Amino acid sequence: MSRFPENFLWGGATSAAQVEGGRCEDGKGLSHLDYVYYRGPKIPCNFMLKKDFEKAKAEEDKLNFPNRRGIDFYHHYKEDIALLGEMGFKSFRMSISWTRLFPTGLEETPDPKGVEFYHNVFKELHKYGIEPLVTMIHYELPVIFVEKYDGWASPEVVPHCVRYLKFLIDEYKDEVTYWLTFNEINMVTAVPYLGGGILLDRYDDFAIPKGFRPFGALPEAMAKRWNNASHQALHHQFIASAILVKYAHDTAPQCKIGNMFNLHHLYPETPSPADAYRAHEESEYNMFFCDVMAKGSYPKWILSYYRKHGIDIKWYTDYEKILSEGKIDFISLSYYLSSIVTADPARQERIGSFIRTLKNPYLEDSQFGWQIDPTALRISLNELRDRFGLPIFIAENGLGAFEELGEDKTVHDGYRIEYLRKHIEALAAAIEDGVDVFGYTPWGCIDLVSCSLVSMSKRYGFVYVDADDEGNGTYKRYKKDSFEWYKKVIAINGEDLT
Questions:
Q1: Which is catalytic among the residues 184, 269, 282, 349?
Q2: Would you call 320 a catalytic residue per the annotation?
Q3: Residue 291 in contact with residue 298, Cβ under 8 Å?
Q4: Domains of the chain (ranges, CATH numbers)
Q5: What is the pLDDT of residues 351-396, one digit of tens each?
């Protein structure tokens, strides 16, 4: 008996902002991610303040905006999908760019060239028997909502977004079965600009302390703005998602709608009760995003958390009814690493932070300091099974590394094979534990612009793309060693991972 279901959806994952390119081509508008500029091979870019956004606008002709280029999937999609087909992909997770369909986000009707582009992509995928898994919003927000409003913290975004989301169902419901509303919806509380188009100091001139780390302790004024704006934005995203889910259930019942959150398993640093409770508290925080979307209501503890931390949500009209009627069909997640937490106030990091500085001595680190822990994936999948009882899709998992094309025109990425092998083994063990996992799409199956560094240097793919951080290169595609390995894994449904 196979360890994986017969129709398990093996594949890979990308996002429009990181692969498409085609900036302003055929009427495409700009999103807030198109204003994130490259700052160096190891410098995180997606934490943007007002001065950064103003610099991007003022120096648009001078700065390097890699998201605007991507890997030129817009012109290479047939070639790229042929490579996915050669690997035997059963599923391809992709996203649709809001501004390719509605260039400013305010239009009542979509741009026909953008509409046709995605029809062509879906047609090409189906040609190879590949099931699309489509993220409706993979962070991208039309830039007008940053310029004129306060990103997702403003309720004005909701009706425009809902119009866009409903259009996707109406237009593509016969070509796409599986949908995700928001990518890593919890990241809006960790990185407000990336996840919500929020400039934290838009209205406040608080001083940013020297050596400031976005995942560390915050100045009081900044913490207040961060908490209120990010959770208000999250509330509006919950509302837009729930409205869409109900609409899809009513008009396209063949479609299955999932959420997508960043799974971050947390261990206590010591066996002390204080550390254990801190880990429990942070784990509950990580899970509450699924609670709202899968159970249709806010858990009581998060409302208490809001009161305790002075988070004042302006509740959307009839929000309780909207959430209860818009419960998702399955859970999807990204998983990259685990972390440890402490109750020690001097070393404690902000709840909900993604990047942690405390190190687990039992784990190895990637080149980028992410601790590699496949066992935590198995533990978390069992917890999700018990908490929600819904099917689960692993929408992202993978290893980023600095890589160069060798003289033999390939990359010998045995380290990536080993990383994926261990995580697939953990996934198989979770399935044997009784977890209903129906798909696995490793991140960046074709090299793409990394999210945190906004660069090509950090590579995840089975396919190497000849492009550098400045946009130089042939943009030709080359198979890495992991290409043939994953092709074999898919062909034998994960039975032999050697």
A1: 184
A2: no
A3: yes
A4: 9-264+285-339+366-491 (3.20.20.80)
A5: 888 888 899 999 999 998 899 999 999 999 999 999 999 999 999 9
